[in-house]
Amino acid sequence: MIEFKNFSAGYTDHFVIQNINCRLVSGKIYALIGPNAAGKTTLLRSLIGDIPRSGGEITIDGQNIKLFSARDLAKKVSYAPPEINPAFNYSVSEFVTMGRFAVNRAFWETDEDIEEAANALITMDLADVADKAVAELSSGQKQSCLLAQIIAKNTDIILLDEPAAHLDIKHRADFFRKILSLKKNADKSIIITFHDLNDAINAADSFMLLKEGRLTACKEKDGITGGMLSELYGTEVLISEFPDGRKAVLPRFARAENTI
Question: How many whole angstroms separate alpha carbon 158 and alpha carbon 79?
Fold first, then answer.
């Protein structure tokens, strides 16, 4: 379980996020949403100790994260940035196996590391490109590569920052199917930042609404209304539901009298 208790973070002259209070349980996908510059990435990176804390605390399973060593925190939490551009010409297999370094800190990979990495490559349909350079992958394959590294690392908490930002609709659907499968089969806590609210409303179990560095709501998906989203983004937003249970989030581009 993750708990934010009056948590604030930022820099000497600027608190990016302020007085965050929220409790997150395992086995759920949380959609972290809000306008640009709301502090979403800062909140994620605070969970891995990348952003200076200015007040309050974050606990994981009851323990303050500032009491974790870097190694122990890395065993608990994985973070994936929006995109990867490796400094070296790593192969897919090498990149995925590097996720195991946080687990054992060994100079050479163990048999267990090799097995976990191989299984992650299979899970993410990357076995056929295992020897290919990461730099040569498509955007969709790179995101799968990031997730494969996280699967190999096998942490209880997974943080994904705009993972589908550069994916077309087919690859987005494939990617989130794998995320849903990971949640179902591995009982992970997964926090994902979204700009596409249609992805969020169909993939997430719960929502964290962030505006100007403050958490305005932390609710189950069924508690999220068009009015709440309209207030969050400062524009009229509607939520429609289809007979099969899927939902769509629709902004209003024109006034009603001008629509056909």
Answer: 6
Non-local (6+) Cβ contacts of 43 within 8 A are 9, 17, 20, 32, 210
How many other CB atoms are there within 10 angstroms of residue 226's CB atom? 16
Q: Give the separation between CA 216 and CA 210, rounded to whole angstroms.
A: 6
Query: Has residue 72 got a pLDDT over 70?
Result: yes
All residues at 6 or more sequence positions from 17 whose CB lies less than 8 Å from its CB, including other chains:
7, 8, 9, 10, 39, 42, 43, 46, 210, 213, 214
At 163, list the tokens. 């993972």
- Alpha-carbon distance of 31 to 44, in angstroms, equals 12
- Domains in the chain with CATH codes: 2-258 (3.40.50.300)
* Helix axes 111-123 and 139-153, enclosed angle (nearest 10): 140
For residue 138, report the phi and psi dihedrals to the nearest 5 degrees: -75, 170
Q: Are 232 and 35 in contact (CB under 8 A)?
A: yes
- CA 59 to centroid of chain Cα atoms: 18
The two three-digit tokens of residue 36, written as one number? 């640009």
In this structure, the chain runs to a length of 260
- Tell me the pLDDT tens digit for each residue of 13-71: 677 899 999 999 999 999 999 999 999 999 999 999 888 888 999 999 999 999 999 88
Contact 94, 130 (CB under 8 A): no
Has residue 260 got a pLDDT over 50?
Answer: no
